[in-house]
Structures are given as structure tokens and as C-alpha cells.
Amino acid sequence: MDFAIPDTLAPTLDALRRFVDQRVMPVEQQVRAEGFAAAEAELREMREQARAEGLWLPQLPKDEGGMGLSVLEHGLVSEVLGRSLLGHYALNCQAPDAGNMELLIEFGTEAQHEQFLRPLLEGRVRSCFAMTEPEHAGSNPVWMSTRARRDGDQWVIDGHKWFCSSADGAAFAIVMAVTEPDGAPHERASMILVPTDTPGFTRVRNISVMGDEGEGWMSHSELRLEGVRVPAENLLGGSGRGFALAQARLGPGRIHHCMRWIGLCERAFDEMATRAVTRKLSPDQRLGDTQTVQHWIAESRAEIDATRLLVLNAAWQIDEVGVKAAREAISLIKFHAAGVLLRVVDRAIQCHGALGVSDDTVLSWIYRHERGARIYDGPDEVHKTVVARRILRRYGTVKR
Ligand SMILES: Cc1cc2nc3c(=O)[nH]c(=O)nc-3n(C[C@H](O)[C@H](O)[C@H](O)COP(=O)(O)OP(=O)(O)OC[C@H]3O[C@@H](n4cnc5c(N)ncnc54)[C@H](O)[C@@H]3O)c2cc1C
To answer: DSSP letter string over 221-241?
Structure first.
């Protein structure tokens, strides 16, 4: 393992730091104050500038218009971008589009590339991923009611989905639906590309998350699909292959999220340390003079630095041996990094007192948007079970 920053990447990271500080942070300020839709023009200009400067699709190979970075290098980029909740959006490597791009590149047909992938790569449209259903436990993804049946040369889809991130304003959804009801549990569902303007596709609402419905890319929607008809060729990667595709989608995506969380941790840490040395408890005592706050600083520093190494190690394993063989490392970082993020942000909020829960600093915004980190892409408990079972199997058999 060599985690030294490659010479070729150092100038890119410098350019990205400047871009995030000078170009993304002011737009973030506007989005926080006025919402995503009101800042649409500034967001578009920010993305155009990123693309013009060659800071575009860092997660993709050069022949797809990307920056051709390894998973480890993209991890390092993700930390820099992650300081702002809009950093990844600026470079068109944001969830859920980044994962959907990967799926389309790897499993899409030429026609699907033309219709769905190209506009996504160019940043002309956005997409969403619709798998979770309110009626079923999302942590058991093989259990779903959404059905797609063949009728001549079309799929007819009926179902109810929710927490579809960024569905508001998305041009299409990748919908998980059962197409092989008699198949083995992991071979029943398929992914189908559904333009959001197809009759029968309804975005019911943006779900209020901790008091914030959000809008546009920064929202999570409930969807209804009623008799939605799409051409048979909108099937992605074969009937019954949905779970195999979903597994492939989540490896690099977890590195992206975990390193993004490290970026957010560093930002919260800066806010906490700055407050600790400036807020006075009395004329001759500052918050940072108390042992409690000193311990928050030390514990946070240790947790952030250790987590960075853990995540980079998982990224390195993906580069070296692939997603499947790196599964244990990927599950390990998912629950660990999410926990560290929320602990560091919580300490930073506590350190700010009432100011910390107000919207006058960025901390409550981060907390609101990231409390879900311990739930989405698999709740903590599921990942802990994956890790523990694999470890215990090396010592003997384990009951399923
Ligand atoms: C911010 C956010 C964005 C999301 N974006 C998307 C998206 O774009 N597309 C999409 O399809 N879905 C999305 N989701 C949904 C997400 O994938 C599900 O919430 C997740 O899979 C958990 O499913 P659930 O909410 O039904 O919880 P449940 O499955 O009902 O589980 C509830 C709780 O039970 C515990 N639990 C679950 N399984 C076990 C177990 N085996 N052992 C012990 N404890 C367990 C966990 O603590 C879990 O939080 C998003 C969710 C959030 C919060």
C-alpha cells in the first residue's frame, strides 16, 4: 500500500481546493439561504466553469469524457470536493448520477448510451434510482412489490417507491422491479430505464427530512408507477440481473461517500477548533481551555485520520483486487465512516451551543442532510453483520 499523493494528482487537488473555496462555497451559501431552485443559474455556471477547466467526471475514464483517475485517486479528490455538499455536484460526480453512469457504461446498450448516458455525462440532465418501497424493509432488498410485466414489445410497470434521491427534476429513473417472480430471490428483479415524463409515472411529493423537503437535486421523493409503459429495450443488463448490477454499483460509490464524509468532517472540525479558541466562557477562559473541548478535538482528530486511512485502504483494495474481493473492507468503512462523521458534526454542534443548532452556521445543514448516512446504501447493522460473518467464517461456521 502506498498512500502518498501521486505527483500527477497533486496539481489537480490544488486546483480543486481553489475551485471549492472560490467557486463552490459562494453558491453553497446561496443554496443554503434561498434553496436549490433559486440558485439554478449560478449552479449551471459553476458546472460550466468546472468543465471548462477540465474538472469534470473525475470518477470516469478519459474515453468517457472523465479524468481517468483510479478509485484511490478519486477518493482523494472526493475528500477535497466533500468539504461542500455541492462539491461533487459541481464536477458531475454526484450521487445518484455517478452510480447510474457506471451502470449504463458497464451494462447499457449502444442505444441506451445515446438516449440516457450521453446527456448525463454532459450534465444536461439528471437521473434517480428507485429501489426502496415504503411497504417493505429496504434492508431486505429482495422483498419488493413493484412488478414489470411484458406486453408485446413493452414493459408495463406498477409500483410504489420512496426516498428516490434527486427525482425532483430528473429526466429518468432506473427502477428496480420484479420481472421474474418465480426466480431465485436474487434473480427476480431487474433494472428498467424509465423517462420521468412517461404517462403513469408520478412524483407524489418530496419527503420532508428533518423539517426540510428540499428541492431539485437535494431532495428525496415518493413515486407512484401506475401502468407505466416503456419499450422492451429499456431493460438494463438482462432480466433478473438487477441485484448483480446493484452490487457492482455500490463499491466505488461507497468510497465516494466515505471520502466525501471525511471532507465534511474536516470542515466541521475547522468550525469546532475555531470556535474553541474564540468563544470566551469568562474574560480569561476560552472553550478550548476546558479539558472536555480539548478531548473533543483530540478524539475527532484521531477518528478522522484513522478513518481516512481505512477508506483509502478499501479504495486501494478495489483498484488491486476488484469490488467483490474488497467486500469486507467496503462494508467496514461504510458503517465506520458514517459514525465518525455524525460524531464529529455532533461535537462541533455541541461546541457551538445554541448557535450550533441554528442555521447561522453550516453545521445543522450538514447534520440534516447527513443523518441518513447511517441508513442509506445499507444501514449500519447490515454492514456490521456482513463484516462479522466474514470474519467469523474464518474461525468456523456461522448460522445465516
Ligand atoms: C437520505 C436517504 C437517501 C436515500 N436514497 C435512496 C435512493 O436514491 N434510492 C432508493 O431506492 N433508496 C434510497 N434510500 C433508502 C435506503 O436505501 C433505505 O432507507 C435503506 O435501505 C433502509 O431501508 P428502510 O428505510 O426500509 O429501513 P428498514 O429496512 O425498515 O430498517 C430499519 C432499521 O432496522 C435496522 N435493521 C435493518 N436490517 C437489520 C438487520 N438485518 N439486523 C439488525 N438491524 C437491522 C436498521 O437500524 C435500520 O435502520 C435513501 C434513504 C435515505 C435516508
So the answer is: EEEEEEEEEEEGGGEESSTT-
